[in-house]
Amino acid sequence: MRFIWIVAIRFLYEGKTQSLLILTGVAVGTAVIVFLSSLITGLQESIIQRTLGTQAQIVIRPPDEIPRTLNPEADARVERPAQRLRSIVGWAQVIDVVRRVSGLTAIAPTIAGPGFALRSRGANAISLRGIDPESYTGIVDLSRYITAGTFRLGAFETVIGTELARDLGVNVGDKIRLQTAGGRTTVLRVSGLIDVGSRDLNLRWVFVSLRQAQTLLGVEDGVSTIEVRVDDIFSATPIAKQIADRTGLRADSWMTSNAQLMVGLRSQSASSAMIQVFVVLAVALGIASVLAVSVVQKAREIGILRAVGTSKSQILHIFLLQGLLVGLVGSGIGILAGIGLSVFFAELTRSPDGSALFPLSLSWALYARAIAVATVVGVVSAALPARRAARLDPAEVIRYG
Amino acid sequence: MGEPIVLLKEVSKNYEGKTITPVLHGIDLTVQQGEFTALMGPSGSGKSTLLNLLGLLDRPTSGSILIAGTDTTSLSDEMRTRFRGETIGFVFQFHHLLPAFTALENVMLPAMAREGHQTPAMRKTALELLDAVGLSAQAQKIPTEMSGGQQQRVAVARALAMNPRLVLADEPTGNLDTKAGQQVFDLMRHVNASRGITFLIVTHDDRLAHRCDRIVELVDGEIAHDLPNDPLRQTQVV
Q1: Which fold has domain B33-53+76-237?
Q2: How close does chain A come to B107, measured CA to CA in Å?
Q3: A155, A237, B63, B128: which sits with the fewest CB atoms below 10 Å from its CB?
Q4: Model confidence pLDDT, tens digit, residues A110-166
Q5: Do the Cβ atoms of B81 and A301 come within 8 Å?
Q6: Is the ipTM beyond the 0.85 threshold?
């Protein structure tokens, strides 16, 4: 083994109490970081998962219709017209253009518009959504939310929300009539019931095939929106901008349409980061002060080492190594403790039905990051004591030591 | 007789704190290879300072120090450390052994520091040295498990680890009872005779000093006497 390793390990072993103290400090710090990270990340992942579970990450729409004045100087009031349902002009070509943007995992044309679902004397206002099941599965996997029947959209089939079904008193296999604002109407068979986790949406969503929706809404061969799923959900906004630039259409990312949620997530991340920074700082100060005391206590031994031919840089490295070892070993213990803490907490807060209230996100990346941080902190906080040790005047410590 | 192992020219040393304290004033000293010299003097006379200068643990304020023909005052810190490790061995009063290391490891320290790692050859050399100081049975003991005399013999073995040309000892027997002190002294004389290693020993013990080849006496930072150890002087002191 290398000389400096031998001396560093012996020094740590010799000052057992102090070494245990800083090891505990590092371990507790690491455990807090692991626990906090797993909790916050898990929580955020589940919130995002829930939010994005039923919506596309990027939605492409035709731009709003706004009249332009021929003479901007004129003191005229420009009245904004009511927006009508419009098809994206040349949507097939638009999809080809969008496909060339990198970072996308799925693209699906959809059409959405208002309408009514009728059965005998019952009538409900609905949001009609025409999708192509095959491509739309890449955006939102609706079959996961099916509670009865199957997710199948044949020519005269529809999948409706559970609340709507209850309101209308229909079940799988029953027929309902759909009517749109344009007066077009059709009768469809309910092939499946869907529960997307929101009462409101369960009451309003009616899925039909793309072709059926086009007919009902009176936009033959058109689509009103193109929905996109991206690889990295947090890159949705820049990708949306890229799409908008290339197509000249409006492209809204989930991050802008859920701005409130994003602010919440960001401040959560920020406070978690802040806590971690202070934990790291406290641990660093702990390591530095314990090592500083150890340098004073070991002054005589450092003097001996210097007298028998140990160089200043070797002394420096011996103390840096002690910081490194403490960081490495302490974070190892801390990770185990953090995992234990997280699992214990998850068990403790498990809801009666057995589902986890606090979803945890424990990953190798998190452990690697914790070890890296602790090791770097160990070495950095050892730097000052190590420099002091290297600068000790051997003659002085031998004389007075 | 060849090149002297130690050659001091006009060496002065001041300690500079709030006030400047002169400790050594223009010391001239020559020590030949193989000499066994006692360095005596009342406390505060500058013996330890002189020893630290010779051991390259400290730098003189002025003057030059040649060890084995090398002008050490012009060497960098790194070079001095290396030179010290190769040329000079130390024995301190309080048998400065590292408490967390076994006797064997303590003897191996200079070689490990020099090479940066341990080798089986180092272990072998260290065992031979411990054997030479009569402590091969104590090789795996840590310092606190040994008597003061044994610890000091380990320190002597360590001083010899790099096969130095010069061994500096600062009151090597000062902390030991008469019998143990005698043993350590005998050991050093034996090493001096068998290996031709030069010894410079700071001591307060007149009886030991008079078993040295030469006595240098410092008083107030100057050499007051520098005499070969002849019977005449012995009678004077006694």
Answers
A1: Rossmann fold (3.40.50)
A2: 10
A3: A155
A4: 998 999 999 888 889 999 999 998 889 888 888 888 999 999 898 899 999 999 999
A5: no
A6: no
